[in-house]
Amino acid sequence: MPRSGWTDLPDEVRGAIEARIGPVVGARSATTGNHADVAATLETADSKVFVKAARKLDTDQDGPEVWSLRRESLIAPHVKQFAPRLLWQQESGGWLVLGFEHVPGRAADFAPGSPDLNELVTIIHRLQAAHCPDVVELRVEQRWASLADDVSPMAGDALLHTDLNPKNLIINDDDGSIRVVDWALASRGAAWVEVVQLMPWLIMAGHAPNEADMLGRRLPSWRNVAPEAVALHAGLAVSFWERRSRNHPAAWIAPYLAAWRVWADYVSKAYAAPH
User: Fold this and answer.
1) Mean pLDDT across the chain
2) Coil, strand, or helix at residue 162?
């Protein structure tokens, strides 16, 4: 379903936003992401702000997109060292709206040889050293619980973003700083799960699976992961995305599933014995 734009918001909602930031003179919708009905950079005469907005199902009932934004608003104060600042939030006209600091930059490049790969490893090091705040209630192993009797190898108390795809890492070319966006699926779990979630994105960017594996081994959590846990995750990831592709087909899922299959095939050979 196509994402709506700034002008599709009800007059009441646009009016409430402009009461905060001033008259909007330009709006540019985000082309990626799926955790909001509207995601756009709004420009006023003297500033820019990034807004994410989601429509409630009715006055007293949130839908999935609203739940996602509520999770983002809860974790935002705890990840200010990684993410754009949450400036404000409001509910009006049946919508929840979050206003974030506008961060100029580009999406990360995961291609082999990219200098952004060093930034990627650095930001994961920092994430895995951070405390997981109590507001993070999603447990990563529960995503897989319907597919296996025992998902306990994925359990833990590390702070996980779980979706560090290139579009969610914004690189500022002026100073090289990096910001992590879209925390809707922030979870707690075993630290190595953050690393394995990278593997399809690295493969899609041109890495052979063994190259992606070697990049992961720059992180202690991946060097220390049990081979059987990696094999379990690989099988469950393929099963999950095969089911998702049948039930909720979308153009991006096919290459993503293909990358998971490449990774699972590699794991079946490379992780057959302890390494």
Assistant:
1) 92
2) coil
How far apart are the C-alpha atoms of 139 and 154, rounded to whole Å? Answer: 9
pLDDT over 80 at 128, yes or no: yes
Strands 86-92, 95-101: pairing is: antiparallel
C-alpha 264/C-alpha 51 separation (Å) is: 37
pLDDT (tens digit, 9 = 90+) per residue, 184-206?
999 999 999 999 999 999 999 99
If you ran DSSP here, which 8-state letter would residue 15 be given? Answer: H
Mean pLDDT of 135-143: 95
Among candidate residues 266, 229, 221, the one with its CA nearest the CA of residue 129: 221
**Residues carrying CATH 3.90.1200.10, the chain:** 106-270
**Residues belonging to the chain:** 275
Contact 72, 63 (CB under 8 A): no
DSSP tally for the chain: helices H, then strands E: 9, 10
User: Looking at domain 6-101, which of 3.30.1510.10, 3.40.50.1370, 1.10.10.60, 3.30.200.20 is its CATH number?
Assistant: 3.30.200.20
Nearest to 234 by CA among 207, 195, 208, 205: 195
Kindly give the residue spans of alpha helices, DSSP state H, lying in 180-226.
192-196, 199-204, 209-216, 220-223
Percent of the chain with pLDDT over 90: 83
Residues of the chain with CATH 3.30.200.20: 6-101
| Measured distance CA(71)–CA(49) in Å, rounded | 20
CATH code, 106-270: 3.90.1200.10
| CA–CA gap between residue 145 and residue 134 (Å, rounded) | 22
